[in-house]
Design goal:
The chain is α/β, with parallel strands linked by helices. The protein contains 7 helices and 10 strands. Strands 1, 4, 5, 6, 7, 8, 9 and 10 form an 8-stranded mixed beta sheet that branches. Strands 2-3 form a two-stranded antiparallel sheet. Strand 7 and strand 8 form a beta hairpin.
């Protein structure tokens, strides 16, 4: 008799250590859908099935930590990148990986991607394999997007990687790890790098109504 597929224990890793220099304002605390951008991002990951979320903070990290602690308690923990002004995203990812609780895999999501749908996370989890460690990416119109679901067994390789081009360089070295799942979710395109990005996101998603977006 064939055994049932095991349900993986998944965490979330959100990156929010940067200076928000292109935006000109601190992105995590900008208002969106009646809360902050970082709360929207955390809510989407939790609603998508993550047992907990680790947020890597740096610039204005005390404000971010205070907000998250008050709202989420132990479901969200904060890891610190004290050298946020001089390091790249891969450095924050490594800090976050070392702070993750035990799990089978984790969603990796920049903190400025606040409108990924619940169903996208669920589809990635359904594609996780206990037999072969790998990385599952959502794709939209054929393009790989965030959030990938990264198998916990790959963290040693991620921590040891010393090549160029950040995490993208590691994926290019190991295309055999990669699986893709097509999704119907414009949220995987939405990252708030600039004031224009932020304005377009507010116009599109706030006019659609909060009920249509991921909630806690």
């Amino acid at each position: 008799m064939q055994s049932m597929k095991r349900t993986p224990r998944i965490r979330g890793l959100i990156l929010a250590a940067g200076l928000s220099s292109r935006m000109g304002e601190f992105k995590p605390l900008l208002p969106l859908l009646g809360k902050t951008v970082i709360e929207n991002t955390v809510d989407s990951v939790l609603s998508g099935g993550a047992a907990s979320v680790t947020v890597v903070a740096g610039y204005r990290g005390e404000e971010v930590a205070s907000l998250l602690s008050a709202r989420y308690g132990e479901r969200v923990r904060v890891a610190w990148n004290p050298d946020y002004a001089n390091t790249d995203m891969l450095h924050s990812i490594r800090i976050g990986c070392q702070a993750l609780p035990a799990c089978d895999g984790f969603f990796l999501l920049p903190g400025d991607m606040p409108v990924v749908r619940r169903e996208t996370f669920q589809r990635l989890t359904a594609a996780w394999s206990a037999e072969v460690p790998g990385v599952v990416f959502p794709t939209l119109d054929g393009y790989r997007k965030h959030p990938p679901l990264i198998d916990f067994r790959l963290i040693p390789e991620l921590l040891a990687y010393d090549g160029g081009d950040g995490l993208r360089g590691l994926w290019q070295r190991h295309e055999d790890w990669i699986r893709t799942i097509p999704v119907d979710d414009t949220g995987v395109w939405v990252d708030l790098d600039t004031q224009q990005d932020y304005r377009i996101c507010k116009e599109k998603f706030e006019s659609a109504g909060i009920k249509n977006l991921p909630q806690k």
